[in-house]
């Protein structure tokens, strides 16, 4: 960095993610990109996220997350991480729906990916990274389908 500090990335935590999880994330992002939030609970259920009774995540919860996440993939202007309270809002949603989450199942592979995503978002925020996120995510989501 300009002030002489050095950043070291540790790639020691590597995991192969099952196809149903990676394809599920692609389907989730496609639904967000294409404005189809109503499909999210069913996609999550196929990824193993469901109520302990076997039902889908309540639409109220998935819609709240999709709304915050959709900022990153807006068409214009390109999103800059750190320009708003994205990370904080995601954390607040987690606290708001804590009791509902207690009655849901989450595959361990998905928990791993979500923790990695959180760290990545934090790094992008510190860098104030701006990019064509919509196009990048669409490219990966389409190639995984």
Gist?
The protein has 145 residues and is mainly α. It has helices spanning 19-33, 40-46, 59-69, 86-96, 98-101, 108-127, 133-144; strands at 50-51, 104-105. The relative contact order is 0.18.
Strand content: under 5%
Low-pLDDT segments, ≥5 res:
none
Q: Which secondary-structure class do the elements indicate?
A: mainly alpha
- End-to-end CA span: 38 Å
Q: Tally of extended strands?
A: 2
Q: Spell out the helices and strands N to C.
A: HHEHHHEHH
Instruction: Give the strand line-up of the largest sheet.
Output: 1-2
Helix content: 55-70%
In one word, what is the shape?
Answer: globular
Helices, by number, come to 7
Largest sheet: 2 strands, antiparallel
Rg on CA atoms, Å? 16 Å
Arithmetic mean of pLDDT: 89
SSE blueprint:
Elements (H helix, E strand, L loop, with lengths): L18 H15 L6 H7 L3 E2 L7 H11 L16 H11 L1 H4 L2 E2 L2 H20 L5 H12 L1
Antiparallel strand pairs: 1-2
Descriptive overview:
55% of the residues lie in helices and 3% in strands. The radius of gyration is 16 Å and the shape is globular. The chain has 145 residues and is mainly α. It has helices at residues 19-33, 40-46, 59-69, 86-96, 98-101, 108-127, 133-144; strands spanning 50-51, 104-105. Helix 1 (19-33) packs antiparallel against helix 2, helix 1 (19-33) crosses helix 7 and helix 3 packs antiparallel against helix 4. The model has no long low-confidence stretch (mean pLDDT 89). It starts with 18 loop residues before the first helix and ends with a helix.
């Amino acid at each position: 960095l300009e002030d002489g500090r050095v950043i070291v990335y540790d790639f020691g935590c590597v995991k192969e993610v099952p196809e149903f999880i990676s394809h599920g994330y692609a389907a989730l992002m496609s639904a967000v990109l294409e404005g189809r939030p109503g499909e999210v609970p069913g996609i999550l259920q196929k990824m193993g996220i469901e109520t302990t009774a076997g039902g889908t995540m309540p639409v109220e919860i998935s819609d709240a997350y999709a709304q915050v996440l959709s900022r990153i993939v807006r068409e214009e202007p390109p999103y800059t991480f750190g320009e708003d309270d994205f990370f904080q809002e995601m954390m607040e949603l987690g606290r708001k729906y804590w009791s509902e989450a207690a009655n849901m199942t989450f595959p361990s592979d998905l928990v791993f990916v979500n923790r990695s995503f959180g760290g990545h978002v934090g790094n992008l925020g510190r860098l104030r990274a701006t990019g064509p996120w919509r196009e990048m995510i669409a490219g990966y989501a389409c190639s995984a389908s």
